[in-house]
Amino acid sequence: MRNRHLLIGNWKMNLGPSQAAAFALKLREGLPKTARTDVWVAPPTVSLAPVCAELAGTSIVVGAQNVHWAASGAFTGETSPVFLADLGIAFSLVGHSERRTLFGESSQQVAQRTQGALAAGLTAVVCIGETEGERSAGRTETVLEEQLSPVLESVARDAAGRVVLAYEPVWAIGTGKVAALEEIRQAHRCIESLWARKQFTSSPVILYGGSVNPGNFAEILALPEVDGALVGGASIKVDQWLSLIAIAEESPVARG
Ligand code: PGA
User: Fold this and answer.
1) Whose CA is nearest to atom 2 of ligand 1?
2) Contacts of 166 (CB under 8 A, 6+ apart)
3) What pLDDT shows up at residue 2?
4) From atom 1 of ligand 1, which residue's Cα is the shortest distance away?
5) What is the position in ligand 1's atom list of the atom closest to the CA of 212?
6) Least buried of 5, 14, 41, 72, by fewest C-beta within 10 Å?
7) For ligand 1, what atom is nearest to the CA of residue 210?
8) φ, ψ for residue 188, nearest 5 deg
9) How far is the CA of 75 from the centre of ligand 1 (A)?
């Protein structure tokens, strides 16, 4: 529950350093002054520094797509949360479904990564969501609980305000299939109730992700349970991304 919309662009493994800097320049030039929308982007790790440089002095917040739990050590190929913080990085995605399915990240590891990010002062954007098979088997809420519980167990009360949750049904990611509005509402309510069990002092911030585009975003954002969106494909097309920002700016903030 925020008093501003939150729009996060997940660039995935697209836009290497020079392309990312050129894209960031277009964003900087095209970004309107936003009154009710926070705009965050998550470039690939090697593009973080050039994007930070290009967006310095703007309101766009830069984050990573994944983060390790340890501050340093023998973890070849991983990125320390402390190193990200040193670079001026504000947040990291954690537990994106592509990490879980393609790279075998368990919910326990996602919890550890979340903990590492929070300990380094970053905001953790924790992604959860069911597969098509799990939904048709009626297991959506069980899966959300299985994925979220270890994370919530590991979050210290004073760090809960730096956790953002992203509900991303796996079957809607990159497929053009969007969850029905009622499915989104139910999943977000389930996540709210899992959060409520922990009795954190802050309320949960819950984004929807999965084939969000300028044609479907307004009605999704109008749902009272939705604080914003985590966007893949449409976040690396400058016109679509700027349209999403414009739509968020026109949409009243339902809660706050
Ligand atoms: P999509 O990706 O918007 O391309 O479906 C969303 C995501 O993977 O976060």
Assistant:
1) 232
2) 8, 93, 125, 126, 127, 128, 206, 207, 208, 209, 230
3) 80
4) 232
5) 3
6) 72
7) 5
8) -65, -35
9) 28
Low-confidence residues of the chain: pLDDT under 50 = 256
The verdict on the CB of residue 64 being under 6 Å from ligand 1 is no
- In this structure, what token pair is assigned to residue 110? 């996602």
Give the integer Cα–Cα distance in Å for 68 and 79.
Answer: 6
Residue nearest to atom 6 of ligand 1 (CA): 232
Q: What is the pLDDT of residue 94?
A: 98
> Which pLDDT belongs to residue 34?
87
pLDDT at 32: 87
Q: Are 64 and 13 in contact (CB under 8 A)?
A: no
- Positions marked active-site: 96, 168
Residue written as token pair 């911030």: 205
pLDDT digits (tens, 9 = 90+) for 17-39: 999 999 999 999 999 888 899 99
**How far does the centroid of ligand 1 lie from the alpha carbon of residue 201, in Å?**
30
Look up tokens 């053009």; give the residue.
176
